[in-house]
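Thread title: Can someone regenerate the structure for this chain?

I was given the following input by a collaborator and told the matching structure tokens would be attached. They weren't. Posting the sequence so someone can regenerate them.
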Amino acid sequence: MKKLALFALPLLAIGCTSPQQPKETNLNVMTFNIRYDNPQDGLNNWNNRKNEVAQTIRFADADVVGTQEVLANQLKDLKSELPEYETVGVGREDGIEKGEYSALFFKSGKYDLLDSGNFWLSENPEAVGEKGWDAACERIVTWAKLKDKESGITFYAFNTHFDHVGRVARQESVALLLNRINEYAGDAPVIVTGDFNAEPASGVVRDMIDKSNQNAVKDSRSLSPVIAGPGWTFHDFGKLPMERRDIIDYVFVKNSVDVNRYGVIHAQIDSMFISDHNPILVNLTLR
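Best answer:
Regenerated them for you:
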């Protein structure tokens, strides 16, 4: 970021002041479904992967990370491995620590947390642990209002995991999420991370980015001048056939956000995968 050198001059000696450069801040954003701790995952069990998950986040130098399928013990492990990050989020089943989190991680040395909260993807968003519409599971959105300590820019991060079964639930969740983003963030820069359980050509994604809807967001992949990595995120620990793999994880943006780079990270160590999803890493500039 360019810094403007200001020189103190007597006010009587100059009839105008130099315009300030627009403030901006650069950051790396990741969305990462880490796969819940399932003892039946064998070689890919969480105990074998947890250090690699943490190191992937750290190696990517991710400033803000939206995670999905995080159980309480996994959150504890990641907080221990990543002390430079602060977290917000609750378990989706009881609003405390039961069930999966859609936890947000952010670098505490870079950002101040101004506000945060959670709401459920259901007909009653404030009803803790309520399943919505035809959803198979409770689904939650965790959000945070963050202030960049250097530039002073305030922005909002929303993170979620849409249902994998309920078609009505996914469609209704789009409307609820977009309305809440507009309500909370207004004109401020917005980042939306998540596993949407929907391919790019699906109605869910089309509705998220529908230009006729003033509340819509934009897909960072379509905005990026640089795209790297495979064109799919979910691979089921490598078991899903290539022809069936697609992108179901996204980083969406809204308002004063420029996308500089977009990459899908596919990490495998010998026969072990860091997750059954590839994380996505996007470099952004907020203004």
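The chain is about 20% helix and 30% strand.
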